[in-house]
Design goal:
single chain, 488 residues, alpha+beta, Thrombin, subunit H, 2 domains, 11-stranded antiparallel β-sheet, 6-stranded antiparallel barrel, 9 helices, disordered N terminus
Amino acid sequence: MGIAKHGACPLALALLLTACGGGGSGDADGGNGSGAGGPVVPAWSERIEPFEPKAAPVPTPASQPRRGAAIDAVRMPLIALGPLPSHLLKAVAASGAAGAPRQIGHARALAATAGASATAALLQWQPTDHGTQVAALRFASEGARGLRLGVRVHGLPPGTVLRFAAAHGALVVDDRELQAIAERNARAGASDEVAHTYWGPDSGTDEATLEIEIPAAAASAAVRLAVPRLAHFVMTAADAEHAVSLKAAAAGCQVDLSCQPEYLDQGRSVARMTYVAEDGNAYYCTGTLLNDSASSGTPYFLSAQHCIPSQVVAATLETDWFYRSARCGSAQAAAGVRRVRGGATLLYAAAGSDTAFMRLNGSMPAGVIYAGSYYGSLPLGQPLAGVHHADGGLQRLSLGALLGYGSCSQSGCSAVDDGGDYLRLRWYQGMTEPGSSGSGAFVTIGARRYLVGQLHGGNASCDNPSGVDFYGRFERSYHQALRRWLSP
């Protein structure tokens, strides 16, 4: 895929972008924000440096698999659903606007396992050769490109382990982890029912299995759980990339990050997010790993509040790292893509600046870079870059400049003076799409780049390349709250 350009603004003229970038639909470009005192000239000192660990920690899973009966050796009653109705398939395919989460899955109800008693009646317990008891269930949803099971835990005997078969390797969680997740959800204000629902990993196929293992002395009647619904995925990562590649080829609107090697370090800080919303639907967004002033290696992660609005949703988060093309222009993913599970602990969320700031619970893979951040003011016309997963596909790059500031609400965004909580950008190379939501905008200071905001939304897209995007101003969220963690 070649690098597409919109308009006649070369990189060297980025500071003049407001004059040659074209008029965005509904965008007000008036004013240069300089005020009576002249243009803003930043000192560039208000920043946290990026951090690349010299010796990456050895990844350790959130829970260690224990020896047990193989999933395919256990008697597993099948709970099967037919294909997703066509009107729901169309609704998922058409969902999302530029800068919005990309819906990839739809919730489906499971009547057979909706309650604990009905689920218990289906479980066929049998002993294992190492002194435990095991039972399992198999779920199928015809035509699914992946499934995530929503398991509601009412009660489990001590020592219980839940095991899920998944596309990226089996996932094992025990009763203590499940209780910790439920307590974290409850402290954040979730109802008891929602707090005690655990979403398993993506199965990667139209079937998913749940295995339950308990100690030999435990009473099977003490296992009280249900699976009232699942998330039926309508696309895989390859499907998402195929869709965005077709759109990019037709419109000439996307820039493959691998074609711009000077931005690959930013790509090592950016992850594609997969999560399940409280309604059971599944989505893609984008987020950025941030460094703190002590370079502690704490996996602080920034995205948009409209992607991760609550602790319950944060608990379902899975992140994909190094998800970029194998080479410039390729539609194939490079080797070494890593998925991190375990969800996240939501530390701060604010609708006013569309900020979701969290700490990832899983261990970071070797090779990541903790991005630097800049929490000072920016001059108008400042060149900026965005790194994101448009439509959930491989990493893309957008290049543009700051037009001014904005104010956003549920009814939309508009241009305002410097008092706005959002940066207002126009791109001259590369566009954002659904799935880019929450991704970072970076400013270059010297030889390094620093995050200055996260994508809220806008009307810039492959269909509207002269449109404008709005990013929550990192300087606002930093001074309001994030400094507590990033610069304690």
